[in-house]
């Protein structure tokens, strides 16, 4: 398909002036394509959908309707950041849906990783479909497809942005302004559009979110321990200059307990596992050599600040033999 091939004459976007040129051209092209019609976008808060949103806000303003679905599996502070940046600062037309209970109820008792993923994906489409049906005169669907998605997939649709699963009567024309860009180019464009660094330089985060790091059947108490321990890890990595250096770092909470001791009493609580890896393409990965003193400090903070946790482990395993995620 020729319209899915990056033009050979297209230069790599590495500077803000090149990004500005791309932005100006895209704004013109988007206005010509969309005219005065409305566009719908599932805004996850990830780099790609955030950059698409910022670009479309510049091009068509309130005719872009962003839907941010909080599936209850986002990291600490993420939904708040989406609301702050897009609704408060960029004055976007943002529909915020807190579907936490709905997702967690659906996921209750499901322990198989692929069934968890499918359940999250299917419920996401259902929530998005419901929101789409409430809106009128939407003719376009914007997606944060980037060039690697096209290169890596047969159909050119990003699996975890899979609103391509919408029912037949909800077919929209696609708007994919980033489809010829590589990730590093998307980041330069995002920065030039004024998005905060915390959004533009985010580490990769899987579509099913914390759902695949709260191992086995998800429970609210373990999910809370996961979210809080992950926030501490991110805060400490940022403070110690590792945030921009390490490719992916996060915590995992397994579905078994171990004994511990607190205030002279025996406890029976969950361990938290820390994972910090580097990779170029996620096909193989090496483990970051995190300073031992920092690991001790993080352990101290997690065991004293996070409920239901009495132990912290560090995953020393490269990929292979392990995968990056635990599920
Ligand atoms: P693994 O665990 O396979 O992960 O070594 C490789 C990369 O893919 C991410 N990942 C996912 N991303 N949906 C996503 O959008 C998923 O279901 C999913 N599973 C893994 C993982 O975080 C890592 O960056």
Spell out the blueprint of helices and strands.
Layout: H1 16-34, E1 38-42, H2 47-60, E2 64-70, H3 78-89, E3 93-98, H4 100-107, H5 113-134, E4 138-142, H6 147-152, E5 173-175, H7 183-192, H8 197-200, H9 220-239, E6 248-252, E7 258-262, E8 265-278, E9 286-287, H10 292-305, E10 309-314
Parallel strand pairs: 1-2, 1-4, 2-3, 4-5, 8-10
Antiparallel strand pairs: 6-8, 7-8, 8-9
The structure holds xanthosine-5'-monophosphate (XMP).
Xanthosine-5'-monophosphate (XMP) is lined by residues 117, 160, 204, 206-208, 248, 282, 319, 323-325.
In short:
This protein is of the alpha/beta class and 327 residues long. It contains ten helices and ten strands. Xanthosine-5'-monophosphate is lined by residues 117, 160, 204, 206-208, 248, 282, 319, 323-325.
């Amino acid at each position: 398909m020729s319209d899915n091939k990056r033009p050979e004459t297209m230069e790599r976007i590495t500077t803000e002036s090149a990004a500005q040129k791309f932005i100006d051209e895209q704004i013109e092209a988007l206005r010509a394509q969309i005219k005065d019609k409305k566009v719908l976008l599932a805004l996850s808060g990830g780099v790609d959908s955030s950059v698409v949103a910022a670009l479309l806000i510049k091009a068509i303003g309130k005719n872009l309707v962003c839907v941010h679905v909080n599936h209850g599996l986002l990291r600490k502070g993420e939904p708040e950041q989406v609301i702050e940046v897009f609704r408060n600062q960029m004055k976007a037309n943002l529909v915020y849906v807190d579907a936490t209970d709905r997702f967690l109820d659906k996921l209750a008792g499901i322990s198989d990783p692929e069934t968890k993923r499918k359940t999250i994906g299917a419920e996401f489409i259902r929530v998005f479909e419901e929101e789409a049906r409430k809106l009128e005169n939407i003719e376009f669907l914007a997606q944060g497809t980037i060039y690697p998605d096209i290169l890596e997939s047969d159909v050119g649709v990003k699996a975890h942005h899979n609103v391509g699963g919408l029912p037949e009567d909800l077919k929209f024309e696609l708007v994919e302004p980033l489809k010829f860009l590589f990730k590093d180019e998307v980041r330069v464009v995002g920065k030039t559009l004024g998005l905060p660094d915390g959004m533009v330089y985010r580490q990769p985060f899987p579509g099913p979110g914390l759902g695949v790091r709260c191992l086995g059947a998800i429970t609210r108490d373990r999910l809370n321990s996961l979210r809080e321990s992950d926030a501490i890890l991110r805060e400490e990595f940022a403070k110690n200059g590792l945030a921009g250096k390490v490719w992916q770092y996060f915590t995992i909470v397994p579905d078994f307990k171990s004994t511990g001791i607190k205030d002279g009493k025996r406890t029976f609580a969950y361990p938290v596992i820390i994972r910090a890896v580097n990779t170029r393409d996620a096909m193989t990965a090496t483990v970051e050599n995190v300073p031992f003193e920092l690991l001790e400090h993080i352990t101290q903070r997690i065991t004293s600040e996070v409920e239901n946790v009495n132990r912290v482990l560090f995953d020393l395993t490269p990929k292979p033999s392990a995968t990056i995620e635990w599920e």
